């Protein structure tokens, strides 16, 4: 019979955990508001920009949902932290390469801010703990 062994893990203090979760909830709420605004932008978009505006709008919903999951259970959603951080850092880097445009200037501020908030929350909430997986005998993998 196989027994599971896990390394000791530490839980963040309640205060830091609430701060990190609060930042993720704030990111989620603001992004949801931008998602709603996206429908107005889609309605005003020309036919050749409709797909781009729609893609962006639906992306805001996905990111709002991912930040909500991180706020709700920060140590139970493997890969979401890293995917959000990767995307937001990549978007910020892209924005900094086109600072001479309106979208580049706006995105350099927003994407670098939410990337920083998410990285900070990842650290204080110990987001890497979401990767802890235990396999007990033939039981399915389950995150702790």
Q: Keywords for this structure?
A:
elongated; two-stranded antiparallel sheet; 66% helix; 2 strands; mainly alpha; single chain; disordered N terminus; 144 residues
pLDDT averaged over residues:
88
Helices and strands, in N-to-C order? HHHHEE
Shape: elongated
- Rg calc: 18 Å
Helical element count? 4
> Low-confidence parts lasting 5 or more residues at pLDDT below 50?
1-7
Span between termini: 21 Å
Q: How many strands, which pairing sense, and closed or not: the largest β-sheet?
A: 2 strands, antiparallel
Order the strands across the largest sheet as they lie in space: 1-2
Alpha-beta classification: mainly alpha
Residues in helices, as a percent range: 55-70%
What's the count of strands?
A: 2
**Which range does the strand content fall in?**
under 5%
What is the element layout, followed by pairings?
Elements: H1 14-44, H2 50-72, H3 80-97, H4 102-124, E1 133-134, E2 142-143
Antiparallel strand pairs: 1-2
Helix pairs in contact: 1-2, 1-4, 3-4
What does this structure look like?
There is one protein chain. The chain is mainly alpha-helical and 144 residues long. The protein contains four helices and two strands, in the order ααααββ. The chain has helices spanning 14-44, 50-72, 80-97, 102-124, and strands spanning 133-134, 142-143. Strands 1-2 form a two-stranded antiparallel sheet. α1 runs antiparallel to α4. The longest helix has 31 residues, at 14-44. It is elongated, with a radius of gyration of 18 Å. It starts with 13 loop residues before the first helix and ends with a strand.
């Amino acid at each position: 019979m196989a027994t599971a062994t896990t390394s000791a893990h530490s839980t963040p203090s309640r205060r830091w955990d609430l701060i990190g979760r609060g930042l993720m909830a704030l990111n989620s709420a603001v992004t949801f508001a931008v998602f709603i605004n996206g429908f107005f932008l889609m309605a005003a978009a020309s036919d050749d920009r409709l797909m781009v505006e729609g893609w962006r709008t639906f992306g805001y919903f996905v990111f709002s949902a991912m930040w909500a999951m991180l706020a709700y259970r920060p140590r139970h959603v493997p890969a979401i932290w890293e995917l959000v951080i990767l995307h937001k850092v990549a978007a910020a880097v892209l924005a900094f390469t086109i600072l001479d445009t309106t979208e580049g200037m706006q995105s350099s501020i927003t994407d670098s801010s939410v990337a920083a908030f998410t990285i900070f929350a990842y650290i204080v909430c110990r987001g890497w703990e979401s990767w802890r997986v235990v396999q007990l005998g033939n039981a399915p993998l389950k995150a702790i």
